[in-house]
Write a structure and sequence with these properties.
By secondary structure, this protein is an alpha/beta fold. The chain has ten helices and twelve strands.
Amino acid sequence: MKLLLTGAWADARAHFKTLESKGHELAFLQQERDPLPCDPAWVEGVVCNALFLHHSLDDFPRLRFIQLTSAGLDRVPLDRIRARGIRLCSARGVYSVPMAEFALAGVLGLCKQSRAFTDAQRERRWEKRRDLAELNGKTVTVLGCGSVGTECARRFAAFGCRVRGVDLYPAPNDAYEAVLPLGRLEELLSGTEVLVLTLPLTPETRHLIDADRLSLLPAGAILVNISRGAVVDEAALTDALTNGRLGGAVLDVFETEPLPADSPLWAMENVILTPHNSFVGGGNGARLAKLILENLEAAALEAQP
């Protein structure tokens, strides 16, 4: 296959020889917004992230394979890809482990008041805290039961939590006590002490967690968002954190990224805030390479007469 690889696959160069040994011809584009290094009519497959935000799909008449380096599909023209019958593969599963570890670490950090102890260590203050919470026994609701959500569920369950799942398309999954349809979300929220968001951003999920649904959570609940910022009404979340309705939040994604410097979220003691970084992990490179090579092999077999 004639492949255009982009810098979104950080380790792409390390796999050139392997790809060429399998008969692929390669072109490489470091920055996806830059001019293409080849005639787009030459390209049969791409490995990219946001390439089609900068280059029209219509410019690639022979394109039959797209491998994304992201798990989400919100940066590609899905309708046009499907209409053309182009094989589309995401990086589903590649980042699930570090994201689940991040979610668990963030909630533990809030329960154990790690920020206060870090500040005390920096200032050399010997100061005990008598109001630390336990994660054991808490009820966790994971909204979005795909690969990331399931890895989250397994880790929270290992810490003694009761874990329920809510999904747009519920299916049996032994990582959860139960997986329920989205229509059951409201009835679960009143008993949810930790709400973990791992679902994709779609018209249906935009601002799914709004002021009304936040008000259903019990006082002191913790919200974790490692999906997309716009799944949550950020203004409503800010209000709930400011007035003490929520116990805290672990936020890796935001409606506007980078998060504006004047956002009140930056200064909140009960917020752990990171710059869309939860997906980073030491095993990502090996998992992504394995997935890309497997998907290319499957596409090659599919193309055989």
